[in-house]
Amino acid sequence: MKNINITNIVDPTSLQPFTGNSLKFLQDASSEARAGMIKAFITQNLGSYSLTVPYVISGCVVSDSGKDVTDGEIFYGGEYYELTGVNGTTNIAQFSLVKTQDSTADPLDFSDGQTHNVHDIFKFVGTDTATTGTFDSSDLVSAYGSGKVNTFLSAGTSVISSTSWADLSGASYTTPNDGVTRTYSIVGKTNNNFIASSGASDGGGLKLVVDGVDQDESFGRLANSGVDVTTVNLTSTVISTITVAPNKVIKLQVKSVSGGSVSVEFGRLSISEL
């Protein structure tokens, strides 16, 4: 801990000077105390800390394949900084340290008659350039950890007769829009009641879709069963392990095999982060 000893001040006979070095000493003390708390916080959440990693304290949401980043705050190299984001870029966002001045506090008139700007503001500013900066958007790491996602969604009863895939109501999940790409284990399940008839291929289908891309399909049906008209219950299950970017939709879709009435009476979507 850094602290200025003031016990030798005996006003008015013994006054203690406050020099440029004294001011630097106080600034360093404040910075080190803040850094110590943030380092402990990061280590507790992530298990380790590195001076070369830009840790996100707030904001800094990455989108468009790393090209867009919102404004925020980071901790980098043992110091706290504001970060100015960038939007509508064609390159991966690059960030470099930029110094500006406080226009209200500066400039100051010194005792020798010279004028100087001394109130420095350092920020990391995003740019749309192919030139490498201090770090880029892919280097940003949440100081809070990924926050393990475990979601269990239950779909209500749904009656379908269309042979086209349709979203299953209540079985849709959007990944957190926090700049963190996660790996998920996903399981979807439905119980399908339908009326089976002789010589027909009846039943229901289930599909898992992640960010608009089909991952797995399953069908519960009787094909050319030869049975007379009867109610049948069959189960469909879809499974996938996949890495998913932020703000993407994971959902289940259903359809009727032959266009007959199928009642989805039990639907579940389970999502667990690995």
What radius of gyration results from the CA coordinates? 30 Å
Number of strands: 20
CATH architecture of the largest domain: Sandwich
Can you tell me the number of structural domains? Answer: 2
Q: How do the strands of the widest beta sheet line up side by side?
A: 10-6-9-5-4-1-11
Structural class: mainly beta
- The shape, in one word, is elongated
Task: Please state the average pLDDT score.
Answer: 86
Describe, in plain words, how this protein is organized in 3D.
This protein has 274 residues and is mostly beta strands. The chain has two domains: 123 residues, no CATH class; 124 residues, Jelly Rolls (Sandwich). It is 10% helix and 49% strand. It contains one helix and 20 strands. Strands 10-6-9-5-4-1-11 form a seven-stranded mixed beta sheet. Strand 4 and strand 5 form a beta hairpin. It is elongated and about 110 Å long.
Characteristic key phrases:
single chain, seven-stranded mixed β-sheet, elongated, 10% helix, 1 helix, 274 residues, Jelly Rolls, five-stranded antiparallel β-sheet, mainly beta
Please give a quick description of this structure.
This protein has 274 residues and is mainly beta.
Helices and strands, with pairings:
Layout (H helix, E strand, L loop, with lengths): L19 H27 L8 E5 L2 E2 L4 E2 L2 E5 L2 E6 L9 E8 L6 E2 L5 E2 L3 E8 L7 E2 L4 E2 L7 E6 L2 E3 L5 E9 L7 E15 L4 E10 L2 E11 L6 E15 L4 E8 L5 E12 L1
Parallel strand pairs: 1-11, 5-9
Antiparallel strand pairs: 1-4, 2-3, 4-5, 6-9, 6-10, 7-8, 12-20, 13-20, 14-19, 15-18, 15-20, 16-17, 16-19
